[in-house]
Amino acid sequence: MSRELLIKLREQGGLSRPEFRQLLAAHEPGLQAEAAALATALREQHYGNRVFIRGLLEISNYCRQDCFYCGIRCSNRKVQRYRLSPEQILECCEMGYPLGFRTFVLQSGEDPGYSDELISDLVREIKLRHPDCAVTLSLGEKNFSAYKAFREAGADRYLLRHETADAAHFGRLHPLKQSLQNRMRCLQDLRSLGYQVGSGFMVGSPFQSPQTLAEDLYFLSEFKPEMVGIGPFLPHRDTVFANAKPGDMNLTLFLLSILRLMLPKVLLPATTALGSIAPEGREKGVLAGANVIMPNLSPPEARDKYMIYNNKLRTGAEGAEGLRLLAEKMRAIGCEIAVDRGDYPDA
Ligand code: SAH
Questions:
Q1: In the chain, domain spans
Q2: Per CATH, which fold does 2-338 belong to?
Q3: Quick one: which of 254, 203, 213, 285 has its CA closest to 18?
């Protein structure tokens, strides 16, 4: 019965909300293994054994928002704030290119200290120096004209997780001035500007339920993002949710497989959070259907301070300098790292 739902999901690219709930309720190791087998077959069909890498640059931890789950929320006074200069960011790209990175992801808190103009200039400069590379931005909620300026400067992709597609749930994870409606407006704006768009959510965030998860899957089946980022929620000691329990690794893996079945060509990272929660988390993610890994290219001081949750992996195979180790780990599971922009196939 549940296996039929997996097949139906693959055939139709979506399910009804009750069917998604039914599928989630049926999660057990046997079904998870079946989902993973179907998902990896699809990944191989579209991408062979290639796994794409993205160089992650955590460019600033200043943030004007106050998301209850996030370690760099503005009300956390214990954070040592930092902001990389354009020169530092360009140096990181310079370092990443010979390592094989052909996508640079600039991620930060919502930092008013970077003007839209500065970001646009920076994007333009990266594209000028590395014309064969893609630039992905992940700078949070901005207005249309900012997204437009970044796009015109050459940005190719934008990552903005919806976090939860249930408005009431969204309200329990964020202060009143943040809304699901604005998040959705941003995603629509990004799409209309021709970005490859990434969305996603945390697995096991406080107050998440099978209902809210079914809503997430339903939303993603309709919006059809080019990229989906999911990873377990992990508590940070200086947040509202310091004592909340972390998300479940197996549920994350099951959801990765479901996402691959639903959006067969989606660019799906095995996230740092997944790697942080269990040894070999990222390998397990790839074996569940993921095909992207985002090693950290930030300078070491920045890595220590971009602490969105405690015990975040940031060295070893997680660091860009550990790429050889990562390549070995991928070979051990039959995959190879591609030196390639790794665009969405129809983009
Ligand atoms: N300011 C940017 C980048 C946020 S960090 C933005 O709003 O998009 C990227 C992602 O990390 C967030 O979208 C969130 O889903 C995830 N994240 C934040 N805190 C987390 C935590 N405690 N555990 C796991 N993931 C977390």
A1: 2-338
A2: TIM Barrel (3.20.20)
A3: 213
